[in-house]
Amino acid sequence: MKALIAAGGRATRLRPITHTTNKHLIPLAGKPLIEYAIEKIVACGITEIGINVNQGETEIQKVVGDGSRWNARVTYLEQSGGALGLAHVVGNARTWIGNESFIFYLGDNIILGSIEHLAQKFVSEDLDCLLALARVQDPRAFGSPVLDGNRITRVIEKPKDPPSPYAVTGIYFYKPCIFDAIDGLKPSDRGEYEISDAHTRLIDAGKRVGFEEITGWWKDTGRPDDLIEGNGLILDGISVSNISPAANIESGAVIDGIVQIGAGTVISKDSVIRGPVTIGERCRITSAVIGPHTSLSDDVMVDRARVDRCIVMEEASIRSERHIIRSIIGKRVTILDRERSEEAGIHLLVGDQSLIEL
């Protein structure tokens, strides 16, 4: 079996972060989002992985490489024609997949636990398609299945009136017959080739379409709040602290809970770290309170601020006495307190589609 990871798209709901950073490279708990998908796939024993990327993409290749870190082999598949929907992603990989069964995994999905039981059910029941379902509060944002007992009779994409309390998650198992279901699809009202329409065509053709509910949590990280919540869920799953011997934790600094701290990071004596927290390499934390549920990437500076439930990307600098919560702070962003002067007011340099709460 092969695996296809979707790592393209426009990620408009995560702008301005995604103006300069591929969504699938946003770090959660100190690791790029796409690496969680790779780890789940390799844990199933699958080592042939294709990653669908936008045309001209280069950053994912630099981060993931050839897959040898996971004892896997990664092939990059540019999506010709642009981001035209998930069915288009699958169709684009047809030549690479050939006549093999495969997992289709959306690279921005994170789940608790293994997907091995899903793979086993797909194989043991000789299914043509297996959909992983999750119970959600609002299925209107997803593909939602119409259920008749243990059968799926239809899948509706982003229904106004959901037929069930379930969402089809971004984890699918297919035999090559999925390509016949994709052939001839017409774009939806939003201009995309919908994978939900392909699933309904499989059902109408009499193919064996099964489902399995995911236990534990599942997160589609399509919005900023989802990323922050996903970051917290992953941090909650870390059970052991890991502080590099090359980190400098000054006497008097308070370290409470599960923390990971990288080499070269300095924590001043009057700082407090409240886990779960991950702090990258060469960070400098001075007179600050970090955490809980916060991730700092490499080369981050925090001076005097209190930062909790945040994702702070590399080389960001926070020099402020403010309390910063539930925020995503991009690469090389600077946050500082304005020095008092005769000129009253707030000075801002803000990019497109930013959100500021004062």
Helix content: 10-25%
Record field, number of beta strands: 30
Computed over alpha carbons, the radius of gyration is 22 Å
Classify the fold: give the CATH topology of the largest domain. Answer: Spore Coat Polysaccharide Biosynthesis Protein SpsA, Chain A
Under the CATH scheme, the architecture of the largest domain is Alpha-Beta Complex
Low-confidence stretches: none
Strand order of the largest sheet: 5-4-1-6-11-8-12
Characteristic terms for this protein:
7-stranded mixed sheet, alpha/beta, UDP N-Acetylglucosamine Acyltransferase, domain 1, elongated, 9 helices, 6-stranded parallel sheet, Spore Coat Polysaccharide Biosynthesis Protein SpsA, Chain A, 358 residues, 2 domains
Mind explaining what this structure looks like?
With 358 residues, the protein is an alpha/beta fold. It has two domains: 2-223, Spore Coat Polysaccharide Biosynthesis Protein SpsA, Chain A (Alpha-Beta Complex), CATH 3.90.550; 242-336, UDP N-Acetylglucosamine Acyltransferase, domain 1 (3 Solenoid), CATH 2.160.10. Helix content is 19%, strand content 31%. It contains nine helices and 30 strands. The strands form seven sheets. It has a seven-stranded mixed beta sheet with strand order 5-4-1-6-11-8-12, sandwiched between helices. The chain has a six-stranded parallel beta sheet with strand order 14-17-20-23-26-29. The radius of gyration is 22 Å and the shape is elongated. The mean pLDDT is 86.
Gist of the model:
The protein has helices at 17-20, 33-43, 59-64, 86-92, 94-97, 116-124, 178-182, 195-204, 224-236; strands at residues 2-6, 27-28, 31-32, 48-53, 73-78, 102-106, 109-111, 129-135, 143-148, 151-157, 166-174, 209-213, 218-220, 242-243, 248-249, 254-256, 259-261, 266-267, 272-274, 277-279, 284-286, 289-290, 294-296, 301-303, 306-308, 311-312, 317-319, 323-325, 328-329, 334-336.
